[in-house]
Amino acid sequence: MIAYVRNIQDACASIFDGMAVTFSHLFRRPITVQYPDRIPRRIQETLPDRTRGHLEVDLDICISCRACEKACPIECIVIEDVRIPKDSVAGVDGKETARVKEPTRFDINLYKCMYCGLCVEPCPTGAIRFTKEFEGATDDLSRLHLRFVTPERREVVLRKGEGYEREQAEKARKKAEAAAKPEGGKQVDPPAAGEESKEGDKE
Amino acid sequence: MQQLLDRFIESRGWTGDWAIELVYFLGMLFFAVALLLVVVTPFTGIVSWAERRIAARMQSRVGPNRVGPQGILQWAADGLKCILKEDLIPEDADRILFTAAPYLVFCGLFGAFAVLPFSEHLVIADLDAGAFYVMAITSLVPLGIIMSGWASNNKWSLLGGMRSAAQIISYEIPAALSLLAVVLAAGTLSLQGIIRAQGWSPADWFLFRNPFLFTGFFYFFVANLAEGNRTPFDLPEAESELVAGYSTEYSGMRFAFFMLAEWANLYVVASVVNVAFLGGWNVPPIAEGVVLTILQMVVFAAKSLVLVFVIIWVRWTLPRLRVDQMMLLCWKYLVPLSFLNVLGTAVWMMIVPEGSAAGRVASWLLVLVGLSLSGLFGLRVRKNLKDADVGRLYLNPFS
């Protein structure tokens, strides 16, 4: 009998408490973020710094080392490049890195990408990185096939490549001349071989 | 209503019984259909919207707020969607029973609107056995639910239907017994008579008439929740166990009928509790004529809507009972206690005659008890808000 009454008492007390909890929630601000339209700022601006959004490449500091291409487990990155006259670029951390190649093509297939971040890790200059952009919905898949090297940029890079070839040809010619003077017509082959390898690079 | 029709017949100079009968019949039919179409259906829709908004706020969400101002037309969009959906009938289903079941559920609940008053004179039919009629006509609902469960030829549906039957048969007893105590106090089964036996001040309500009726209010409320398959007694459609219970196989408009009935039931339960315990449309004698009728409608609707809110609130607070707990609550607690109630009310009426000084004192004491319970509740809510460190209260009911 005592247990019976205590059951009733417990039920009433717990319902009373529970109702008070839910009622108190009526006076609290909802925490819903009404994406995409009823928000004060674009949602991208409010995301945390390490957000893995779409990938982005800063071609001005890319040294075309192909570390990202090798790291990608699903091969959604495709790079083609040419040798250029050696210079150096400052990475995102300010460290100077030597650059001997520049991409003539740098494609990322975002519809294959799984946002694992393995390409971002090995990049020596920080050229490839995540943005906070994530709204990739589209009715045209080719829009997700990002081509970072524009045709104009490709022209510029190719011209740089030609400059490198001329430089190399010049060097080889000088070397050959220098070699020809003391020994005379012995080394004719190396410049030709050099030409061939450069043509391979260009393609 | 009757006077209106009489005047109409006189003005036309019609004679003969058949013409009068026909006018009565058509007039009543027109009024009933107009009531269902114009008042009840939008009401159930708006209640469904309100329920979703209130539930959302209780869970720190926003709820539907895009269709129309603050999402108030969400129900219309949902209804339209249901009409456009394909009306599927499973191949092995019993076609006749399957198609008939939603309408039976719908009729059972909307039939109850025939005796529910809106004001002193605005009522479709003031039956002498109104309370009995409400209990009887809403019993069509489990019939429809079992029918849909059986005809679907689906184990989830059947289980849902059986549970519903068990539940409603069990809870009919405490509900009827609690209503019986009210009938004892009022001396009539007519819903209008029950309201007239109460007064406008809370002390005149049956809720505070005597301690037995005070507890009887809670038994009646809980039993009605269970009869209406509302949480915490929504075992027939327990989605974690039975998919959607008896309505698993239904789609399109047939499914919408079940939903419509569910929310119409909210208002039926609220108004019956209102009539039996909260004084219905009783207002202080400060107006007459049309103003009085409007005032009564407002008071009745306000009380009913507060109860609708409480039902919604209970739904989003309490978890679902287990089947055995549901039966335990009914047979071990509600049934004996409501028997005690009937007995207690009868004895109280013998010892303390109606309108005596002792009765008035007891009523006002009970009002005090009710007020102090509300006060305690307010303190409890304040403590919760303080514990949660809410800071400034967010009182905007929208957004």
Describe the protein.
The complex is a heterodimer of chains A (203) and B (399). Chain A is an alpha+beta fold and 203 residues long. Chain A has a domain at 45-155: Alpha-Beta Plaits (2-Layer Sandwich). Chain A is built from five helices and five strands. Chain A has helices spanning 2-25, 43-46, 67-71, 151-183, 189-202, and strands spanning 55-57, 77-90, 96-109, 128-130, 145-147. In chain A, the strands form two sheets. Chain A has a three-stranded antiparallel sheet with strand order 2-3-5. A two-stranded antiparallel ribbon of chain A has the order 1-4. In chain A, β2 and β3 form a beta hairpin. In chain A, α4 (151-183) packs antiparallel against α5. The longest helix of chain A has 33 residues, at 151-183. Mean pLDDT of chain A is 83; it is low at 192-203. Chain B has 399 residues and is mainly α. Chain B has three domains: 1-84, no CATH class; 87-351, no CATH class; 353-387. Chain B is 68% helix and 0% strand. Chain B contains 14 helices and no strands. Chain B has helices at 2-12, 17-58, 74-84, 95-111, 130-137, 140-151, 155-186, 191-196, 211-227, 239-242, 252-277, 290-315, 323-351, 357-387. Chain B is globular and about 70 Å long.
Output the keywords:
heterodimer; A: 203 residues; alpha+beta; Alpha-Beta Plaits; 3-stranded antiparallel beta sheet; two-stranded antiparallel sheet; 5 strands; disordered C terminus; B: 399 residues; mainly alpha; 14 helices; 68% helix; globular
